[in-house]
Design a protein that fits this description.
mainly alpha, MATE_MdtK, antiport
């Protein structure tokens, strides 16, 4: 199931590698929807509010671990492309020790700080007991999130994107089955919903770790790899932290936008909540394609295949732009109907506001698709700090423009919607302009 990303047809290799990653994210989205439906239908609005708020919190916490694993995965992929298995094993050991330590510290902090965290989130009194019950259980899954993502990014660095998909698919199905048993049949409440998630996370994390140990014996560390030198440790920390901070900045920027949206009242809040779900689902394949593209670049960067990187970058751009144009057209035409999936047809104000958002964002999905590729490119050529810079430009300008434009009476909430694609555009321009100068790669044919 491994794919040598340094060989074969460039476009076909990228698409075959990216396919399982995209499908895996779709499965995860389907689970999130199923979980919401089960909790909302059988436990009521307060339970749904508790689980929904906890999901936002867990997304932020897990984004830290996912960012660390993503950054390390790029390092693994570079050494795999170089065929330097010795250094790759040193990097694996350093990365595992580092991210495991971060995971343990993070887990300890959230358990100790449950009540202060819920206070900071301003959880209403009616929801507080339910959310406390849920997070007290769900926090046990943080370590398993680390295990799954560490080994998933390790296998993807080897060109294997199918096995992580299989374990994610099994965990998703198990999670839904356990949700039905614990919540619907055995009436275990929100604690049961959390337990279902943790059990599924444990299976996927432990399972993929055991699979990797059994099926990839060449990755077992020997005596030479157990001594981690300072250079290896610094490289892992640098790449991991850059990707981690990027993920955290993205979530922080979204929280700031959410606060501004809330100031426009419940109609805009409801419209934004529904539209963002559609928005995220629409461009998710482009995001996963960008992650797959990053590992393609990493392997070829390690192998020194500059021409293949040039071809891959241009063809990935064409594929992403074509996909985003099709999705943009579909979202623009079907925006009102898509809003009615989440909102009753009689809520005309919410549907109208959500449709405005989707038609503005949807018209510019090419911008976010290109930005995901730029993130992946800079991680792949060992310039992770540049990905962080682009994230700060995109989200910083978005937040700044939103807060400047939305108070203007003649613009209002539309200022928030328009600030988002403007932020994408500014980051895209910066990223493209810096490719040759900062990475050493030219995308045009030499003169």
């Amino acid at each position: 199931m491994k794919k040598d990303l340094t060989q074969g047809n460039v476009t076909g290799t990228m698409l075959r590698f990216a396919g399982p990653m995209i499908l895996g994210n779709l499965l995860q989205q389907c689970y999130n929807i199923a979980d919401t439906l089960i909790v909302g239908r059988y436990l009521g609005a307060s339970a749904l509010a508790a689980v929904g708020s906890a999901y936002t919190l867990m997304t932020f916490l897990t984004s830290i671990l996912i960012g660390l694993c993503m950054g390390s995965g790029a390092v693994f992929s570079v050494y795999y492309g170089k065929k330097d298995i010795l250094q790759m094993k040193k990097s694996m050991l350093a990365s595992f020790a580092f991210i495991a330590a971060v995971s343990a510290i993070l887990n300890g902090l959230v358990f100790l700080g449950i009540h202060p965290i819920l206070y900071i989130l301003q959880v209403p009194e009616s929801v507080y007991p339910l959310m406390y019950e849920y997070v007290r259980v769900i926090f046990f899954g943080i370590g398993f999130v680390f295990l799954y993502n560490f080994f998933a990014y390790l296998l993807r660095a080897l060109g294997n994107s199918v096995v992580p998909l299989c374990f994610l698919g099994i965990a998703t199905i198990l999670n839904i089955v356990l949700d039905v048993l614990f919540v619907v049949r055995w009436n275990m409440g929100v604690g049961g919903a959390a337990a279902a998630t943790v059990i599924a996370q444990a299976l996927s994390g432990a399972g993929i770790g055991i699979y990797t140990w059994v099926k990839e014996p060449e990755l077992h560390p020997g005596k030479r790899e157990t001594a981690i030198d300072r250079k290896t440790g610094a490289e892992i920390v640098r790449n991991s932290f850059a990707a981690c901070i990027q993920q955290s900045v993205m979530n922080f920027g979204i929280l700031m936008i959410q606060g501004l949206v809330n100031s426009f009242g419940p109609v805009v809040m409801a419209a934004f909540a529904a539209a963002v779900k559609i928005d995220s689902f629409a461009y998710m394949p482009a995001q996963e394609f960008g992650n797959a593209f990053s590992l393609f670049i990493s392997q070829n960067h390690g192998a020194g295949k500059r021409e293949r990187i040039r071809q891959g970058t241009l063809r990935a751009g064409a594929v992403s732009l074509a996909f985003c144009m099709v999705i943009s057209a579909g979202i623009f035409v079907l925006a009102p109907q898509l809003m009615q999936i989440f909102v009753d047809a009689g809520e005309s104000g919410i549907i109208r506001t959500g449709t405005e958002y989707l038609r503005i964002e949807g018209a510019f999905y090419c911008g976010i698709g290109l930005l995901f590729l730029l993130y992946g490119f800079y991680r792949g050529v060992e310039k992770p700090e540049m990905s962080l810079v682009l994230t700060i430009i995109s989200l910083g300008s978005r937040v700044l423009l939103a807060y400047i434009l939305s108070p203007l009476p003649q613009i209002g909430v539309l200022g928030i919607w328009w600030a988002i694609p403007i932020g994408w555009f500014l980051a895209d321009v910066t990223g493209i302009a810096c490719i040759g100068r900062l990475s050493g790669y030219r995308l045009k044919e030499p003169d």
